Amino acid sequence: MYKDNTDIQQLASLKTLKDVKDWVEIAYPRWIVGTAKRFSDDYPHLTCSWVEMCKTLKVKPAEILLVSYLPHKEDTERKILNAVCDIFSRSGFVIRRAHEFQQCTICESLLPSQQVWNKLTVKPPFEWKNCCRMCEKSA
């Protein structure tokens, strides 16, 4: 899935993140499934990890990029896709597998999917819902 099918020089010649995103949509169709502005406040550790990554890289958090597949760093057949991930990460994006998250039905912030929530080793002190706890209270 999504093996390198292009020359890294094409990627290197791109000037802006928009250029990279547009190129990715052609070179790796349907790899980017969507984006989100933030994680749900119910899961502050997700936001904290993202903010810490950005502090380390000296960038501001941009968006959450939801993708259909996330390559491993050691994957030699997907070096270009790994380079794309690095470009977005170094620009403040956090990249997550789309099937592991879903948007709150009210505010559209990201929540772990029920399948991921069920696998958490340290569960939050509340049951999984398809919306944020604050949204549920205000609905």
Description:
- The structure is a single chain.
- By secondary structure, the protein is α+β, with helices and mostly antiparallel strands.
- It contains six helices and five strands; from the N terminus they run ααβαβαβββαα.
- The chain has one domain (about 10-139).
- It has helices spanning about 10, 15-25, 45-55, 80-90, 115-120, 135-139, and strands at about 30-35, 65, 95, 100-105, 110.
- Strand 4 and strand 5 (about 110) form a beta hairpin.
Topology pattern, helix = H, strand = E: HHEHEHEEEHH
The portion of residues forming beta strands comes to: 5-15%
Shape: elongated
Rg value? 16 Å
Q: What's the number of helices?
A: 6
Poorly predicted runs of 5 or more residues: none
Instruction: Give a quick account of the main beta sheet: strands, pairing sense, barrel closure.
Output: 3 strands, mixed
Helix content: 25-40%
pLDDT average, as an integer?
91
End-to-end distance, in Å? 41 Å
Q: Domains counted in the coordinates: how many?
A: 1
Strand order of the largest sheet: 1-2-3
Structural class: alpha+beta
Overall number of strands: 5
List the helices and strands and how they pair.
Elements lengths: L7 H5 L4 H11 L4 E5 L7 H14 L6 E4 L11 H11 L4 E4 L3 E3 L6 E3 L1 H6 L13 H6 L1
Parallel strand pairs: 2-3
Antiparallel strand pairs: 1-2, 4-5
List keywords for this structure.
elongated; two-stranded antiparallel sheet; alpha+beta; 6 helices; 3-stranded mixed sheet
